[in-house]
Structures are given as structure tokens and as C-alpha cells.
Design brief:
The chain has about 250 residues and is an alpha/beta fold. The chain has a single domain (about 15-145, about 195-250), classed as 3-Layer(aba) Sandwich (Rossmann fold), CATH 3.40.50. The protein is built from nine helices and 14 strands. The chain has helices spanning about 10-20, 25-40, 55-65, 75-85, 125-130, 145-150, 200-210, 225-230, 230-240, and strands spanning about 5, 45-50, 70-75, 90-95, 105-115, 135-145, 150-155, 160, 165-170, 170-175, 180-190, 190-200, 215-220, 245-250. The termini are far apart. About 40% of the residues are buried.
Length: about 250
């Protein structure tokens, strides 16, 4: 009998917390997180804002690295309960990406780790982050890579991720849809039902260029070398095929 499908992060919160605390996500630990914190640089004595902080593990991580004050929010009540219970050295709140309370010029750096693809438009979020940052403050965000998540996912006894097409005498079969922005419904870890948006590169860049921020860096990170020892198949795939897109912006 298969695992029961759960709706949203509140229902999955305990398992999400255990998964994140245990470092059990190769994609997160071996691709996205190293890139984000390389771009963040030295965070000692900085005030840090996390958008979509989940159960707070990365807030605790930057606090351990010497950040002065760390404030994280998420719209999942249960995830925030877990964050408050486990990481008392940080401050947490239940807030939404598009309407969170602005703390004017209170932070040196803001990080949105794999959260912006849950909302359809970013301009309101960008403006709130911009206002929350001090002059020359930095905003780093990561999203699902448009090429990877524009692909068609085929699950079964085998797993395929396909972006392309085949042409036969019977006609043309297209796999995936990179060019059109759309909502995707999926099930992660075999039991967590999620909804997120697929963004192509053009739409991402338009949102960035329409904001008040200055674009300072763009990364399509590969799996780090450690992945060769932990999961050689994962490393082989993600040394060639992107999983995430990471962008660094600056308030001028």
C-alpha cells in the first residue's frame, strides 16, 4: 500500500523538519545551499532576513556563522512552530511572501531560498525586500531551474525528466513546456502535494529588471565535489543538468 498523500507543508511539517535537520536533501545540501552561501559571503555581524524559512534550519545556520540578528518567516503555521521551538536564538513569524511586514532598512542581507517559485508575481515581494534592506544591502534568491522544471517528469518503475521532442511518421511528440509560465501540481517525496510556478529565463529577467535592484550575479550551480562520494548518480546528472537558478541583487 502506497504512502498517503498529504496536502501542504502544515501536514508535512514534522517530516520536513526531520529531513532538513538531517541534511537528507541532496539537491539542497549539494547544489543550492553551497551556492547561496558562497554568494552571501561573510555574514558575521550582519542582520539577515529569510523569506520562506521553513522550519528554520538555515536561519540557525547563519546564526552559527556569526550573523547578528536573524529573522525568518513562512506562511506555514506548523513550520514556524517548529522553528520557534528548536531555534530560539532566531526570531520567526507567520507571514506571506507578498504581504510580509516591512521593517524599513533593518537588514543587511535577505535570502529567499527556493520560495519565490510558489508565487506568480514577484514585484510586491521585491519592493518589500528592497525597503527592508539597508543601503547596499544584498538580496539572494534561488528558484527551480527553468530548464529542469520545464521538462516533463515521467514517474513509474523508472524515472525520466525530458525536455525536447521526437518526430515520427505518426507526428510530433513534445516533452515538457519550457516557454510558457504555468502552475505545476506535483508530489514530492512520494507524499507531499505541492503547487508551484514554472518560470522561464525571460520572465525571471523581466521581473528582476523591473525591480529597483541591480543585478550583480547569476549562477546555475553544479553539484559540489562532495556529491561524488555521497551519490555518484546524482553527481553525474547534476554536473551536466541544472537543478536551480540562483540570483544575487543589490540595493543601490
Amino acid at each position: 500500500m502506497g504512502r498517503e498523500i498529504v496536502m501542504g507543508y502544515d501536514a508535512f511539517a514534522e517530516k520536513w523538519h526531520e529531513r532538513r535537520r538531517g541534511g537528507n536533501s541532496h539537491s539542497k545540501e549539494l547544489i543550492e545551499k553551497p551556492c547561496v552561501f558562497e554568494l552571501a559571503g561573510d555574514i558575521r555581524d550582519l542582520d539577515v532576513l529569510f523569506l520562506g524559512c521553513g522550519s528554520g534550519e538555515e536561519c540557525a545556520f547563519v546564526k552559527e556563522k556569526g550573523a547578528r540578528n536573524v529573522y525568518g518567516f513562512d506562511n506555514s503555521h506548523k513550520l514556524i512552530e517548529l522553528a520557534k521551538e528548536n531555534y530560539k536564538e532566531c526570531e520567526f513569524a507567520v507571514e506571506d511572501l507578498k504581504s510580509f511586514a516591512v521593517q524599513k532598512e533593518s537588514f543587511d542581507i535577505a535570502i529567499a531560498s527556493l520560495s519565490l517559485h510558489y508565487i506568480e508575481s514577484w514585484q510586491e515581494t521585491f519592493l518589500r525586500v528592497y525597503t527592508s534592506l539597508r543601503p547596499r544591502g544584498t538580496f539572494i534568491f534561488s528558484i527551480n531551474h527553468p530548464a529542469r522544471f520545464g521538462a516533463e517528469i515521467i514517474r513509474g518503475s523508472d524515472y525520466s525528466s525530458l525536455l525536447g521532442y521526437t518526430k515520427t511518421k505518426e507526428g510530433t511528440k513534445v516533452y515538457g513546456d519550457y516557454l510558457n509560465k504555468r502552475k505545476i501540481n506535483d508530489v514530492w517525496f512520494g507524499e507531499l502535494e505541492v503547487e508551484f510556478y514554472h518560470w522561464n529565463i525571460e520572465d525571471v529577467m523581466k521581473e528582476v529588471l523591473q525591480s529597483k535592484f541591480t543585478l550583480t550575479d547569476v549562477r546555475e550551480p553544479k553539484a559540489i565535489e562532495r556529491a561524488q562520494k555521497e551519490d555518484i548518480d546524482f553527481y553525474t546528472i547534476h554536473s551536466k543538468i541544472p537543478q536551480f537558478l540562483v540570483i544575487k541583487l543589490q540595493k543601490t
